[in-house]
């Protein structure tokens, strides 16, 4: 469950992050402003508050829609959706910065070289920019994944039975708080260190074409 | 009673892995000596210099500074200094000037110069500041006291580094290729400072590629080759007819 | 927009501000000291201490802060020797537990940041210090620490902002700081958006202040990197 929430959240975050990064890079003043507002708010406000906003706010929105459609009574936003959305929005703000940094890291000269051999805008983006952005973004992406993995623990406040919530319930029912939280913590450690290794390997693969010294950036 | 040499190095040996860089070097510097150490790159000159103030620890051999031997012990199969305290105190008596200046980038030039006297020798600050200004004036950068190293040219940085070493009132100055990292037009200003020091009677050991300095300023020249002192003598002897064939070949490369 | 509701919410939330600030200030300062101890163990050369520090950093960076906080708050109370121990009057307090777990956690992150700073100190400048006879603590205090601090500062200011946000977790162990009060208001009034807005403004202002302070410090510590002053003072 923890992995599912994190994965979905990351996906949402990737889409949001890409859009926001594009907005911030667009040069259009309004879009740049909106993008900056997004990244400032969601990186500057506690995750917990954002989860409350999505969970409670989302629920009242759903209820309102339900009422408009003639449905009486309170409708809750499913915990999974609320959690994934909240963590996704947060990770989106971090990913936007990661993408932006990666885009800026692509050397100007290489773009000019691409236009010089007559690549169209779309082709240039697909063949030259994307592969490099992905490579530069990988370390940052790994950090965001770790961050989201740990943020996902906060979703337990909405009652979703992910790792944190499960340990909490188990701890509460058995009064063995220490044991269950230790086990829960250990599981997170395993998750984070495993994913760390996956990212390290991916990074090494992605950096095949880089001189080793630069690979350490 | 014979005069105690300022520096006496006996049979220093040093290997990096299987490669033996120093194969038994001995050298003595008396008060006022200016010794130029010449040699092709890779001959072990810099390593030798760094073994004197223990930035590298030799595998065997003795170093004496002003009659005091640096005590060594065998520990974990390696030769190590017996007392960090003694090492610190010996280093404080040896001024070192590096190839790449190595000024502390977060301090102004003045702070660089007074750092050692104030914090290592624990002398009163006001006195050190006064001396530092005099030293900076002496090396020709009296107006740069409050600048940071990054704001100075290479030649100015190296002169500041010389002032920093002098501020410790060392018994002996070690120069590790002090002009090799400089643009050609900046070499002269550093050499002039070094020459002035030599003329004041400062004892100096200079690893260098500057033939002019070796020939005209130093009173002795040592030529190192493959980890050994190949030959040594006064500049007249070394650059005269009686030079060793290897040294003649070496300086031939410079004239070519 | 209901200005009256907004302003009354703001007032309620601001009453909780001192708790948030106290959590923040205490945990950041304790965490910083702890981080220095850990980084000293990590790079000090003693194999066992380095191993311990490595393990500490791994555990506290690898698991969610919330679990660590629950472990301290609920978990410790389970042991009789702690309940009967001399520290129990302190450890019984949710506030103390929150500060303790926040500090332990940020120490792990900060230690790693400081280590990065130390690793970026140019070896040549250290060598120059050794050559004039510096070693041990003097070398660390005069040369290594100031340079490392400058390098570590950008990452550390990010960590401090994260800490400001992390104080919100204390609400989950019943410390009534800003987020906790906001959550209570939301569940009483169901006016999520307005309450969120007020709380968000508070945190954004706090983080803005923190970042400005850090930038000022960075500016102050970077004099040597800027262009030469227009007129050098004699």
Write a compact overview of the structure shown.
Chain A is mainly alpha-helical. Helix content of chain A is 81%, strand content 0%.
Describe this structure in words.
The complex is a heterotrimer of chains A (217), B (256) and C (234). Chain A has 217 residues and is mostly helical. Chain A has helices at 2-25, 29-44, 47-68, 79-105, 108-116, 121-151, 163-174, 177-206, 212-215. In chain A, helix 1 packs antiparallel against helix 2 (29-44) and helix 1 (2-25) crosses helix 6. The radius of gyration of chain A is 21 Å and the shape is flat. Chain B has 256 residues and is α/β, with parallel strands linked by helices. In chain B, helix 4 crosses helix 5 and helix 5 runs parallel beside helix 6 (184-199). The model of chain B has no long low-confidence stretch (mean pLDDT 90). Chain C has one domain: Orthogonal Bundle (MetI-like fold), CATH 1.10.3720. Chain C contains 11 helices and no strands. By secondary structure, chain C is mainly alpha-helical. Chains in contact: A-C, B-C. Chain B binds chain C through residues 53, 55, 84, 87-92, 94-96, 98, 100, 102-108, 115-116, 119-120, 143-151, 161, 164-165, 168, and chain C through 122, 124-125, 127-136, 138, 142-143, 146-147, 150, 221, 223-225, 227-229, 232-234.
């Amino acid at each position: 469950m923890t992995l599912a929430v994190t994965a979905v959240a990351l996906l949402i975050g990737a889409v949001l992050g890409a859009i926001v990064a594009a907005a911030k890079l667009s040069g259009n003043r309004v879009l740049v402003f909106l993008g900056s507002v997004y990244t400032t708010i969601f990186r500057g406000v506690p995750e917990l508050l954002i989860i409350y906003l999505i969970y409670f706010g989302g629920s009242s929105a759903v209820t309102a829609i339900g009422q408009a459609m003639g449905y009486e009574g309170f409708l809750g936003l499913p915990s999974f959706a609320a959690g994934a959305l909240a963590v996704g929005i947060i990770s989106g703000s971090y990913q936007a910065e990661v993408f932006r940094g990666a885009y800026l890291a692509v050397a100007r000269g290489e773009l000019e070289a691409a236009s010089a051999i007559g690549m169209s805008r779309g082709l240039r983006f697909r063949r030259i920019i994307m592969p490099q952005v992905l490579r530069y973004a990988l370390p940052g992406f790994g950090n965001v994944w770790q961050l989201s993995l740990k943020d996902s623990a906060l979703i337990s406040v909405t009652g979703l039975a992910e790792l944190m919530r499960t340990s909490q319930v188990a701890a509460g029912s058995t009064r063995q708080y220490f044991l269950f939280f230790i086990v829960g913590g250990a599981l997170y450690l395993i998750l984070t260190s495993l994913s760390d290794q996956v990212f390290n390997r991916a990074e090494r693969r992605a950096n095949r074409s880089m001189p080793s010294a630069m690979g350490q950036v | 009673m014979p005069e105690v040499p300022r520096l006496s190095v006996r049979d220093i040996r040093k290997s990096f892995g299987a490669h033996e860089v120093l194969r038994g070097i001995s050298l003595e510097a008396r008060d006022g000596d200016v010794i130029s150490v010449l040699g092709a790159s890779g001959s072990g000159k810099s390593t030798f210099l760094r073994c004197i103030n223990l930035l590298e620890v030799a595998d065997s051999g003795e170093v004496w500074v002003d009659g005091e031997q640096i005590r060594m012990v065998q520990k974990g199969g390696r030769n190590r200094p017996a007392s960090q305290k003694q090492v610190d105190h010996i280093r404080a008596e040896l001024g070192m000037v590096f190839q790449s200046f190595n000024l502390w980038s977060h301090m102004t030039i003045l702070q660089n110069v007074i750092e050692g006297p104030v914090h290592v020798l624990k002398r009163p600050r006001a006195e050190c500041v006064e001396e530092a200004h005099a030293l900076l004036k002496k090396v020709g950068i009296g107006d740069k006291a409050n600048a940071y190293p990054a704001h100075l040219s290479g030649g100015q940085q190296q002169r500041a580094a010389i002032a920093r070493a002098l501020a410790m009132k060392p018994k002996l100055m070690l120069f590790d290729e002090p002009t090799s990292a400089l643009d050609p037009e900046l070499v002269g200003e550093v050499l002039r400072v070094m020459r002035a020091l030599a003329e004041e009677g400062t004892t100096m050991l200079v690893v260098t590629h500057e033939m002019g300095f070796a020939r005209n300023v130093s009173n002795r020249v040592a030529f190192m080759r493959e980890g050994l002192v190949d030959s040594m003598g006064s500049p007249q002897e070394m650059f005269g007819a009686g030079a060793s064939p290897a040294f003649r070949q070496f300086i031939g490369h410079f004239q070519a | 927009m209901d200005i009256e509701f907004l302003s009354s919410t703001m007032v309620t939330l601001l009453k909780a501000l001192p708790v948030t600030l106290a959590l923040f200030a205490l945990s950041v300062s304790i965490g910083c000291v702890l981080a220095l101890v850990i980084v000293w163990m990590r790079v000090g050369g003693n194999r066992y201490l380095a191993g311990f520090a490595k393990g500490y950093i791994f555990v506290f960076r690898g698991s969610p802060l919330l679990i660590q906080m629950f472990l301290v708050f609920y978990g410790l109370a389970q042991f009789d020797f702690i309940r009967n121990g001399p520290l129990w009057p302190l450890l019984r307090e949710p506030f103390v537990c929150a500060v303790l777990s926040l500090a332990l956690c940020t120490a792990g992150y900060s230690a790693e940041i400081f280590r990065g700073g130390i690793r970026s100190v140019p070896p040549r400048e250290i060598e120059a210090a050794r050559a004039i006879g510096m070693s041990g603590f003097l070398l660390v205090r005069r040369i290594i620490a100031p340079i490392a601090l400058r390098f570590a500062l950008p990452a550390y200011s990010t960590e401090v902002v994260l800490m400001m946000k992390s104080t919100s977790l204390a609400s989950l162990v019943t410390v009534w700081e800003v987020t906790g009060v906001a959550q209570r208001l939301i569940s009483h009034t169901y006016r999520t958006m307005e309450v969120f807005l007020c709380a968000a403004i508070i945190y954004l202002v706090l983080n803005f202040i923190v970042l400005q302070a850090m930038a000022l410090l960075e500016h102050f510590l970077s004099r040597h990197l800027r262009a030469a002053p227009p007129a050098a003072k004699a």
